[in-house]
Design a protein that fits this description.
By secondary structure, the protein is mostly helical. The protein is 59% helix and 0% strand.
Length: 132
């Protein structure tokens, strides 16, 4: 039974980490929007601590970090804007154009009350022609 508790605990930790990332992302967004370089650097440091992509100079996170390090606020804002657009388009692509259910199976046939003719006499037999 201990397994269930640790699974629930790790789910809570994952949700908590997600909330922290979301908060850092929001702080970074407002810092970049307002042009506050030091707040943007702080928020980025918090975000990148848990994101290995931040150390890749070719990744969007890496480019954002490089722009912030060099103090190039307009480049940082541009990279961040591209990241947001990309994330939004990925989210809508993941949802697809709409949610449709396709159900297979047999077509519906209207029920009929017609009865088939059944033999009710009890003496059903074959007539054999013995005169041939």
């Amino acid at each position: 039974m201990g397994m269930g508790i640790s699974s629930a605990s790790s789910a809570v930790n994952g949700a908590s980490m997600w909330q922290q990332q979301k908060s850092s992302f929001s702080q970074l967004s407002s810092a970049l929007t307002s042009g506050n370089l030091s707040a943007a650097k702080q928020a980025f440091a918090s975000l990148s601590a848990k994101n290995p992509a931040a150390s890749d100079p070719n990744s969007p996170m890496g480019k954002l970090g490089a722009a912030l390090q060099s103090g190039n606020m307009s480049a940082a804002q541009q990279v961040f804007s591209t990241m947001q657009t990309s994330a939004a388009s990925q989210a809508s692509a993941a949802q697809g154009p709409g949610h449709h259910h396709h159900h297979g199976g047999m077509p519906t046939v209207a029920s009929s009350t017609a009865t088939l003719p059944l033999a009710t006499s009890g003496s059903v037999g074959t007539q054999i022609n013995t005169t041939a």
